[in-house]
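Exercise: predict the structure of this protein bound to S-adenosylmethionine.
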Amino acid sequence: MLYLFVLGRDSLLSRLEVESLLETKGLKFNIVDESKNILVVNCDLLKPEIIDEFGGIIKIAELISSSGRFDQIEESLEKSSLYEGTKNKIEYYIDSFNTNLLSFLEDYLKDYFRKISIKALYRKTKEPSKLINKNILESGVNLVVFKNYIGKVIAITNPLELKKRDVHRPDVDYKKVISIRLAKILINISKIKENQILLDPFCGSGTVLQEALLKNVNVIGVDSDKESVGQAEKNLNWVTKEFKLKKKFEIYNLDCRNIAEKIKKNSVDVVVTEPYMGPYIRKLPNIYEAKNLVLELTNLYGILLNNLKNVVKNDGRVVIVIPKFRTRENKIVFIDFKNIAEKNGFILINKPINYGYKESKLLRDIYVLEKIVN
Ligand SMILES: C[S@@+](CC[C@H](N)C(=O)[O-])C[C@H]1O[C@@H](n2cnc3c(N)ncnc32)[C@H](O)[C@@H]1O
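Solution:
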């Protein structure tokens, strides 16, 4: 079966997330074509609900046609069940990417709805929350067209669900927290499986831990700030009760440099974390300040990895967000994280992937490491 995945803003990260999650689920797949926005994947049958497991995927469409010939496209569209709803007044959407087929499809759909006597309005919005509110998958049609690939959308991400989880948790400090979407992406990239153990050594109020618990994973959180530990405990108790979760969580008020005090050797399957990245940036640092911060963080991350080497199982993954600092002189100051990782028993298994807007004050790269087997 061919599927078109509509990728989120950080498309390289979304691509890695798709590969990692399909692999973790034991599905056979290969990537057939791709662009900044779309991944065309040949894969075992997917259930639409899989979209809820992703953090960086906007839509999934099932392929209807991949031909460039109008007669063949028409034949495939006729065979497909484009609209199966019961309403006779609906809306339809076409998301188009690098294609010459848009006007052909627009004409085809206009004709198609006229023939089946459905009053159909062609709309332009692509915002998932609006499409979900309109229940477009049941009472409407959404096509995705990329090059010659035409697919019918079978799943749309539900931002309202994530928002509910974000705003209803009891205690969060938004200056410290990572987004639920990013937490989901990082956890998927870690390739953690159900019942395994995930550690976040800078757990803050526990976003990563919460999203991992929801995947049926046991979690351990560590944070040196007492207040954050209290917040994480409250939030994890809430999520466990609210979603009737069965998995265990442990949270320690501890400096990440001392994790060996509480966490057993070779006991952790994966580490997923957005660590401490220096003080909250109000105005850009100058080069001197940025270089000092890089020295401080190089030291912290080095000691952290040296500790993780002991508690993480062989082959275990570490998925970590590493900052880069833009300075007032418009330079970018980096941490040599590859070197830190290699000195402490880990290897990089991907090129670091940039996350976020290029204009942000704080730039971030996602690193995926694997522990070298002793
Ligand atoms: C960016 S926040 C973490 C966000 C969190 N991973 C989440 O899921 O939302 C960084 C956290 O690191 C904690 N921290 C700073 N230095 C630390 C250290 N040496 N050891 C452990 N935690 C530390 C801070 O208290 C803060 O809560």
